[in-house]
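Same chain as my last thread, 154 residues:
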Amino acid sequence: MRRRALLASAAAASTASVAGCPTPPWTDDPTEIDGADVTFRREHDGEIDASGGGNDIAEVRRRLDEDPPRLVVAGSLLDGPRSCYRVTLFEAALDEGTLRLRIVAEADPDSDVDRCSDVAEPHPYSVAVAFPEAPVPERVVVRHGDETVLEERV
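reply #2:
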């Protein structure tokens, strides 16, 4: 019981509040798909220079000269009115020369808030994909939910 209380207070102290919604600390969620290592983060570094003008944006950052070569997709998904949400990597696939990523907003299971701000909030993210055993794909397709926000040649 005491351990739970300590963990809960540590989590509360490290949680930043944005418009009334507690945001969990940024964490990595590494996985692997077909010889490529995938790391998902609920943040991105710097500004996103993506065209389109919509609320959901994403861009590909090429790091092909690194060892192993990698691609980083940085984006922002706008969601979360009236409830606390967080962005999640729902699907990552590498097939037929295409890297496919699907990002969704889901109810934050760590939130104990019933209602958040009425204004939708942007949820930043980055997905780093390293290719130690797989060839770098020719295309990248990023979807936010069911909408394609990026389809680009590498």
